[in-house]
Amino acid sequence: MSFSDSAQNKAEELKGRAKEAAGAATNDDNLKRDGQADRSEATAKQKISEAADKVKEGAESVKKKLTGH
User: Fold this and answer.
1) 16 near 42, Cβ under 8 Å?
2) What is the dihedral of CA 7, 30, 26, 8, to 10 degrees?
3) What is the pLDDT along the chain (69 residues), one digit of tens a residue?
4) pTM for the complete prediction?
5) For 37, phi and psi rounded to 5 degrees?
């Protein structure tokens, strides 16, 4: 995962937290739900990116073992 992807996911999570807090403060359930959805989406993207990185690392490890490099 690149640094920019990680930063973007963190920014989306923070945006979701801000929406959720604003919704709670103003009794706006729609805004609160939007914030929760934004946070959930950012978390899912982060987990997918981390899983992809692990697969890539595993593939590189196998390649090194097979080629001796």
Assistant:
1) yes
2) 0
3) 677 888 898 999 999 999 999 999 999 999 999 999 999 999 999 999 899 999 999 999 999 989 987
4) 0.73
5) -65, -40
